């Protein structure tokens, strides 16, 4: 079933208990065809409570570099203290890996950018699972950063991926 509004693709989805779904869209990989190469990535909201839901692009707060936004994996964290909704987004700006942490303002269909996480252990992040307002597990889908070595990883079938735990207090690799 094709949904209008997802022409630039969808990479990941996470759903709130109330039926609102976040979708990361517009991921561009070097060397792979893009249906909208001049368009930046975005986070779409889809209300699954409707029979024929339409995706709506969420606005993102000022100061965030939307032009290099290249979203991949996403995860939601709901804070039990105040029901605040945090959206964690794997981002690949300029072929690097970061994790962006946003607070979702539901009344305004708005994402408030709180933090960009950069870390040497987060070098090729694919997906993420949020476990706190600033902590998460992330998967690296490659070990090597060099393009030739990455291609060899696939060709030879090396399994050098890993899972990283990150929090502001500690980080560890497994």
Explain what this protein looks like in three dimensions.
The protein has 174 residues and is mainly beta. It has one helix and 13 strands, in the order βββββββββββαββ. Strands 5-9-8-7-6 form a five-stranded mixed β-sheet, with no helix packed on it. The radius of gyration is 16 Å and the shape is globular. It starts with 11 loop residues before the first strand and ends with a strand.
Number of helices: 1
* Strand/helix succession: EEEEEEEEEEEHEE
Q: State the helical fraction.
A: under 10%
Number of strands: 13
Beta strand %: 35-45%
| Structural Rg | 16 Å
Can you summarize the main beta sheet?
A: 5 strands, mixed
Strand order of the largest sheet: 5-9-8-7-6
Oligomeric form of this entry?
Answer: single chain
Distance between the termini: 38 Å
How confident is the prediction overall: mean pLDDT?
84
Shape category: globular
The SS-based structural class is mainly beta
Q: Which spans of ≥5 residues are poorly predicted at pLDDT below 50?
A: none
């Amino acid at each position: 079933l094709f949904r209008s509004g997802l022409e630039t693709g969808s990479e990941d989805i996470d759903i709130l208990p109330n039926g609102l779904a976040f979708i990361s869209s517009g991921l561009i990989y070097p060397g792979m065809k893009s249906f909208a190469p001049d368009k930046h990535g975005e986070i779409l909201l889809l209300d699954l409570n409707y029979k024929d839901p339409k995706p709506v692009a969420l606005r993102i707060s000022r100061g965030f570099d939307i032009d290099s936004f290249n979203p991949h994996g996403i995860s939601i964290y709901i804070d039990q203290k105040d029901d605040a909704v945090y959206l964690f987004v794997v981002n690949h700006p300029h072929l690097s890996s970061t994790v962006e942490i946003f607070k979702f303002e539901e009344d305004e269909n708005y994402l408030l950018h709180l933090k960009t996480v950069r870390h040497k252990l987060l070098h090729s992040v694919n997906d993420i699972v949020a476990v706190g307002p600033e902590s998460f597990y992330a998967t690296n889908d490659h070990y090597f950063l060099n393009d030739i070595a990455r291609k060899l990883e696939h060709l030879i079938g090396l399994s050098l991926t890993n899972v990283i735990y990150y929090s502001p207090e500690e980080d560890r690799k497994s």
